[in-house]
Amino acid sequence: MSAKHTITLIPGDGIGPEVTAAVVRILESAGLSAEWESHLAGILALERYGTTLPDELLDSIKRNKVALKGPLMTPVGKGFTSVNVGLRKTLDLFANLRPVWNIPSVVSRYENVDLVIVRENTEDLYAGLEHEVVPGVVESLKIITRHASTRIAKFAFDYARKHGRKRVTAVHKANIMKMSDGLFLTCVREVGAEYPDIINDDRIVDAACMHLVMNPSQFDVLVLTNLYGDIVSDLCAGLVGGLGVVPAANLGTEMGVFEAVHGSAPDIAGKGIANPTALLLSAVLMLRHIDEGAIADRVVKAHADVLAEGKVRTRDLGGRASTIEFTDAICRRLTV
Ligand code: NAI
After folding, report:
1. Catalytic: 230?
2. Quick one: how many helices (H) and strands (E) in the chain?
3. Domain boundary pick from 198, 222, 239
4. pTM exceeds 0.85 for this model
5. Which of 29, 52, 139, 305 gives 20 to 30 Å between its CA and that of 131?
């Protein structure tokens, strides 16, 4: 019998293959009927095919409309441009959705954090337009357009309305970057005016960071340009237990690529100790996206039960378990 879903799988590099293997096992233990089309990207694809984003991979995602992705490293200060950014731009995955909440029984600095970051995914300083003007002077272009700002604002307000959220806060630096961040803020306000049922306010990014670490539960949905969204997401991960537990989804009008907020974690790669939770919760977002809500609920429960029992935890959460031991514990819960 053929599988119900065909999903593109990008194992990624660093801890990517470890956490993607763990998540695929858990989803299959939970009863997901899926055929996985596995493709290399990034440095491994470059070594094998001479390109970081092979056409076969892009065609697979375009065909299947859904992908589960491990992290891909980007060289610092030299080498190829970010494959993660390239994938989002090429497939026009314009919205990066990053829900941040307290997982019960994961000890963190705060309780009652329940916010959603909506990050614009296609422009800003991530346009990658940099050049040397004269020796010793470089210019990096920050691109902000009405089209992309309006589109991400609509996404944020629609998401808020659909999920019963009350407030959308635009985060910006329009006091300094009056034209670029000013345009973004104007677009969010214009869109917000069409959603009278949702409060629309804004914060300057530096003050927003301070307010987030002082009292994160005051926030609901945050909408940000690409760079601020990237930085604020990691800050928010730190509020609820770290990068090992925060999921994400890259969404376009037709396709979704689901990946954790974290990167390839070279410091722990190959040691078998990475926490698969962040990718697992990204996969839960994916399951809901492909209308497999019942399987998503089972995965969430099994994962929460293992954490609540407290015996099997990865090191980032204060335990001693390996990735495989933690995965085994969740799979056992799913199959009893
Ligand atoms: P990182 O997120 O890979 O690691 C930061 C810290 O968090 C490290 O101490 C790491 O051990 C820890 N950590 C991350 N994920 C974890 C997990 N699942 N379990 C336990 N601990 C975890 O960030 P870093 O070091 O800045 O970036 C490493 C590489 O990843 C870079 O090449 C970067 O460009 C790339 N990257 C890729 C992303 C993607 O594929 N979407 C996102 C962010 C970074």
Report:
1. yes
2. 11, 12
3. 239
4. yes
5. 52
